[in-house]
Write a structure and sequence with these properties.
The chain is of the alpha/beta class and about 575 residues long. The chain contains 13 helices and 25 strands.
């Protein structure tokens, strides 16, 4: 018996009318500093010899226009290390302690691209070592210079974000440790700079990093010393609580990836350290063949035990890192348990904003950075059909929580790009992003499948094609009775290894439903291409994207048969 699709008219949330895509500042500033395209562990950053991101490519612009209107976020770890050289000078080496330079030509290229394709810009401003006084206070001088340049050159910058992942700065920014209360004061300084230099722009913060298994990344270094500088896992809540008395951000941002890639050298470092310690322990135990070791001295016993503890500590750290970062593979990205974690932390972030009183002051919530695997994506997994299933599910899941925007890392670059870096060939994740934008509206509806297992995911919105309601000139004039239910688009995902059948609602049967059935080529999770209603989509050499019409009359007796590891958009009404 087919399962029944239940779509009540209850509206549970609204989202923004645009998506968000990222280009890392490490791809733009010079020298470029971004993830090794080979996906190798160890030397994971390619610093020298990589050209800056080319925003002028016609194919890139054509493909980006299919996603517009949208936000383009320029951020990443390098955002807190970049020096702004916007006065016409052309320094080849950034002044200490900066590691890269953002030139005026870079900012002009970003602005020209955004204007041409219909994007608005979100920029993470430098809040790292180079933008701070000797006492740790954030200095707004460089940011004010940048905002003046943006205003005078009509660059469509509409969102400013204060720093990138401040709870992880002790790890990413050479031990920089800023308390949440200090960060709230910095946020006040950014708000003041915004009001003076670029009124109307929105301020976003605190861009805290979350891991799948532990949530908000605890700043272990800073929480150990001084004792209360950063309590583990509560940076966001404390920063917002302090900001209530100073200046709340317009948007609360957080970062989340479902797991880690092989480029995350920390995992390999711990494995290497464990191997070295075990080898040292063995050598000490054997005593290098020395007869004296048969009756070891107190000093040698101490060394032996110390090396043993180091070996055990390294192994424990390896296990801990493995659990915390959650390595990504094809199976994990299609696992309900893994996919459901983002909603856990999404609800936690929402609870933090709901604590702000009164409700009129509560910030919107954006997932400010996300991708299929942290650290450049996982080769052979990111950019494949399994990653497209993950992306679709996360878009639907966080929309039910009212998360306004999700910023996808990256538009193009490394393995997790929506477009292949060299050829700009679209990945399955690009195509499902186009369909989401075209079909799913801003009003989120309650939806479920009666009796379904957790491998069947259902998300329904009022369709993007619905016209806005009429504006009545006379307040007392009665509204005419509705003659039909608004068009509704449902995204249905089958993560199971077997097909499933779903019966459409009664109200949808009298009208033709449109279907977009999405599968990896040959039904494979590792497929580098997808099919839409059995056809592989292709963009032209200039980046022109086809219309991708839905199939009408494709449902058998109002029953949708969804193959294993497949997804479908169904537009009804």
């Amino acid at each position: 018996m087919p399962l029944r699709l239940l779509v009540p008219e209850q509206q549970i949330a609204t989202i923004a009318n645009r998506m968000c895509f990222c280009v890392d500042l490490g791809q733009i500033a010079t020298p470029t500093r971004f993830w090794n395209p080979l996906g190798a562990a160890g030397d994971s950053l390619e610093v020298i010899g990589r050209p800056t991101f080319d925003f002028a490519r016609p194919r890139l612009r054509g493909l980006a226009q299919a996603l517009a209107p949208a936000y383009l976020r320029i951020g990443g770890t390098e955002a807190d290390r970049s020096f702004y050289a916007l006065d016409g000078s052309d320094p080849t080496t950034p002044p200490a302690p900066f590691t890269s330079v953002l030139h005026a030509r870079h900012l002009d290229a970003v602005g020209d691209f955004a204007r041409a394709v219909g994007f608005e810009l979100m920029l993470t401003v430098n809040a790292g070592w180079g933008a701070r006084s000797v006492h740790g206070a954030w200095l707004s001088d460089q940011t004010r210079t940048l905002l003046r340049y943006v205003r005078t050159h009509s660059i469509p910058l509409t969102v400013l974000e204060l720093g990138n992942e401040p709870n992880a700065w002790p790890y990413l920014q050479r031990g920089l440790a800023i308390s949440p209360e200090r960060y709230a004061q910095d946020l006040l300084a950014l708000t003041s700079a915004r009001d003076d230099e670029l009124p109307g722009a929105l301020v976003a913060a605190p861009a805290t990093a979350f891991f799948p298994t532990i949530g908000e990344v605890p700043s272990i270094v800073a929480s150990c010393w001084p004792p209360r500088l950063l309590a583990a896992g509560d940076f966001q809540a404390r920063a917002l609580a302090a900001a209530e008395r100073l200046a709340l951000p317009d948007i609360v941002t957080w970062h989340y990836y479902p797991g880690q890639s092989d480029r995350a050298v920390g995992l390999h470092k711990y494995r290497f350290a464990a191997a070295i310690c075990l080898l040292a322990r063995l050598l000490v135990r054997l005593g290098f063949g020395s007869r004296r070791q048969r009756n070891p001295s107190v000093w040698m016993r101490f060394v032996s035990r110390l090396v043993s503890l180091a070996a055990l500590g390294s192994l424990a750290a390896c296990v801990l890192v493995h659990v915390v970062v959650t390595p990504v593979n094809l199976k994990s990205l299609s696992s309900p348990a893994v996919l459901d974690r983002v909603a856990v932390w999404g609800r936690a972030v929402r609870a933090t904003t709901l604590a702000v009183e009164p409700p009129s002051r509560r910030p919107a919530v954006w997932l400010g950075e996300t991708g299929s695997a942290q650290a450049g994506g996982q080769p052979g997994v990111s950019g494949r059909w399994a990653a497209a299933l993950w992306w679709l599910d996360q878009l639907g899941s966080l929309s039910t929580l009212g998360q306004q925007v999700q910023c996808r890392q990256t538009l193009s670059g490394s393995d997790y790009g929506l477009l292949h870096e060299g050829t700009l060939e679209p990945t399955p994740e690009y195509w499902v992003s186009v369909l989401w934008k075209r079909l799913m509206g801003t009003t989120v509806l309650a939806a479920s499948a009666e009796g379904a297992a957790d491998t069947l995911r259902v998300y329904c919105h009022l369709a993007a094609s619905n016209l806005p309601p009429p504006r009545w000139r006379f307040p007392g004039m009665p509204k005419p009775p509705a003659t039909r239910r608004p068009r509704t688009t449902c995204l249905i995902i089958n993560l199971a290894e077997t097909p499933t059948e779903l019966e459409l609602p009664v109200w949808a049967r009298a009208r033709e439903a449109e279907l977009w059935l999405l599968q990896g080529v040959e039904g494979r999770l590792d497929a580098a291409e997808l099919t839409i209603n059995g056809v592989r989509p292709h963009a032209s050499a200039e980046g022109e994207v086809p219309s991708l019409p839905g199939a009408k009359g494709a449902l058998d007796n109002e029953v949708l048969t969804l193959p294993a590891a497949a997804a479908a958009f169904v537009c009804m009404g």
